[in-house]
Amino acid sequence: MFLRKHDQPDKIRYISDHARHERNSEGKIIENLNAGEDIIKFIRDEGLKAPILISTTSRAIRWTRYVEKYPNTGSVGGGYDMFDKYVAALGAGRKDDKAWMKFNA
Question: Is position 73 within any domain?
Fold first, then answer.
């Protein structure tokens, strides 16, 4: 309910890592190299349109090209300048920032 009610760039934004360690169904810790795209798919399949930024390292940024398949989605690798601008735009209640909305912003 909350997410649907606030599904606008000036109200809510998502940030996810590209890959993460998770427990599988047997309780074993595995590395999920698809975690970023998994969360994007989940959010978009729920019908939510708010911005999504995938954050990773400069070495792993090449694996985030999948963001180009999804609207209102981007990726950053290594530096924090664009990451900071993305978060600051939410704090300022902005809807018009788009520089982050691409692969390797």
Answer: yes
Please report whether residue 103 resides in a domain: no
Number of domains composing the chain: 1
Structure confidence by residue, pLDDT tens digits, 91-101: 999 999 999 99
Report if residue 36 sits inside a domain: yes
Please compute, for residue 36, the number of CA atoms within 13 A of its CA located in the half-sphere on the CB side.
29
Q: What is the DSSP letter of 35?
A: H
Write down the pTM of the prediction.
0.93
Query: Using CA atoms in the order 42, 66, 19, 104, what is the torsion angle rounded to 10 degrees?
Result: -130
Residues of the domain holding 33:
2-91
On whether the CB atoms of residues 83 and 53 are closer than 8 A, the answer is yes
Tell me how far apart the alpha carbons of residues 8 and 1 are, in angstroms, rounded to a whole number.
14
